[in-house]
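Before relying on records like the one below, remember that each one covers exactly one chain. Contacts with other chains, cofactors or solvent are not represented anywhere in the record.
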Amino acid sequence: MSAGQPDPNNIPRHIAIIMDGNGRWAKLRDKARIYGHHAGVEAVRKVVEACTELGVEYLTLYAFSTENWKRPEEEVNALMELLVRTIRRETPELDKNNVHIGMIGDGHSLPPACIAELEEAKKMTADNTGLNLILALSYSGRWEITHAVQQIAKDLVNGNIKPEEITEQTIADKLNTANMPEPELLIRTSGEYRLSNFLLWQTAYTEYYFTETLWPDFDKEALFNAIIDYQNRERRFGKTTEQIQVK
């Protein structure tokens, strides 16, 4: 069944994706897990192209969580090498398509080669004004919130803020995503129904979309289906249907 076309007047500004299922995709083909990760890169390319076409402003991809460091060393090393090669290979094309590359997460924990490639990619695409492609690397929501609280605690100790002056905005301003809109749509592939420590603060009012599709099989049509599903929902933010219908 092919997807229809999303309403161009109701495209989410910010889409976040938990790219899950690479390992299972490879296992179904009697291949090593890294084979699935390589296939997942092609899915990223398709989704980035589709988001650019639709005019999505931000696309945040959960590429490597803080918990992923617990995986076998061989797999972690292979993932880091794949990340370096992918950034090096894809950045010129992304730059050509006016895509701006950014990152959230604990960059200091990444291998030096990975940090160097990311910095070069960010520098090359710094002036681009199209899609903001945000890679969540060595990232977790709890880590991010903990880091924000630590920064606020320092401000308290230094007398820059009083406890009663701390608001939700104070916390939001200390997050990695401080200069980004909160996601309207979060997609998780592979049939899992959890956030896995991703954007815990930012997704308080995000619409979730879960699909059985494994990430390497996720394409433009699958993205369109997710966006159309989002467009058919009523976003009330705690209000009643009658309240949001009042012009």
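The mean pLDDT is 94.
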